[in-house]
């Protein structure tokens, strides 16, 4: 949600003279496991440059880097980075090295989002971990701001159609979810 909001504040802009789209911020989701090929395919799909068929990681990398350079990318935002933990130690290391490579090669800021376990995933690469600051979203208090959030979620999920008997359960459940420290997100700086 934060990544999408940030990206919407800095949308892609098409330059007719150059015939190119400039995209300052690119939000992508980490694949379910640390897989370089799938990650590059996610990037290419997000920017509308799909590559069909089987391709070597090096081919996907070259194509993704070429497009991202042409787009004048400044920030790569990766959500669900804790998915790295689904792979072996070696797969995690390769994926983290790839992220560091992308940040270096493109001269972009790297922002990653995830639950507390995301810190464990990122700390697997000392060089990458040193470049990132940890930021936590605060725990919600049962106040007006929290009530507005719940009302927004209810409206977005069409929960207003629930019977009146469900309201206390919805509020209790949401309150429990938003107070759980294991569901806080960290946002390292780029």
TrEMBL record:
Recorded superkingdom: Bacteria
InterPro entries: P-loop_NTPase, TniB
Pfam hit, one: TniB
Protein's recorded name: TniB protein
Source species of the chain: Donghicola tyrosinivorans
């Amino acid at each position: 949600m934060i990544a999408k909001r940030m990206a919407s504040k800095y949308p892609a802009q098409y330059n007719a003279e150059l015939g190119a789209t400039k995209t300052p911020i690119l939000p992508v989701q980490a694949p379910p496991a640390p897989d370089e090929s799938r990650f590059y395919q996610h990037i290419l799909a997000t920017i509308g440059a799909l590559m069909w068929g089987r391709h070597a990681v090096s081919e996907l990398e070259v194509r993704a880097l070429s497009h991202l350079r042409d787009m004048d990318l400044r920030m790569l935002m990766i959500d669900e980075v804790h998915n790295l933990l689904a792979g072996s130690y070696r797969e995690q290391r390769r994926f983290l090295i790839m992220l560091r490579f992308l940040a270096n090669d493109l001269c972009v800021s790297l922002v990653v989002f995830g639950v507390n376990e995301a810190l464990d995933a990122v700390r697997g690469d000392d060089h990458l971990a040193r470049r990132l600051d940890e930021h936590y979203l605060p725990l919600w208090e049962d106040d007006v701001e929290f009530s507005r959030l719940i009302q927004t979620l209810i409206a977005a999920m069409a929960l207003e159609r629930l019977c009146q008997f469900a309201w206390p359960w919805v509020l209790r459940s949401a309150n429990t979810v938003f107070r759980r420290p294991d569901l806080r997100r960290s946002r390292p700086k780029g």
